[in-house]
Write a structure and sequence with these properties.
- It is a single chain.
- This protein is an all-alpha fold and 84 residues long.
- It has one domain.
- It is built from 5 helices and no strands.
- Helix 1 packs across helix 2.
- The protein is elongated and about 60 Å long.
- The protein starts with 11 loop residues before the first helix and ends with a helix.
- The mean pLDDT is 93.
């Protein structure tokens, strides 16, 4: 397999995230961690690549804060509510 060298500039917070992943995944080097993360990102379906998770989380937080949530005592109660 041919390889090419690539130089990239990353923010400190991104590098910290990569280092956390490296430790979590027991990778030997930062380069190994970055390579694995890039390969993973390239295999994600477009839906996940384009989905704005931060916006969705903010919207969910607003719904919770507005009390637009339900709690259930059992799975059966939850399913019953879905059927209404």
């Amino acid at each position: 397999m041919a390889t090419k060298e690539l130089t990239i500039t990353l923010s400190d917070s991104t590098l910290e995230g990569i280092e956390r992943y490296k430790k979590f995944s027991h990778k030997k080097s930062t380069e190994d961690a970055v390579t694995e993360l890039i390969k993973y990102a390239l295999t994600l379906p477009l839906y996940f690549k384009d989905f704005n998770w931060e916006e969705a989380e903010a919207e969910a937080d607003k719904e919770v804060a507005a009390g637009k949530v339900k709690s259930f005592n059992s799975v059966e109660d939850f399913i019953s509510d879905l059927k209404r």
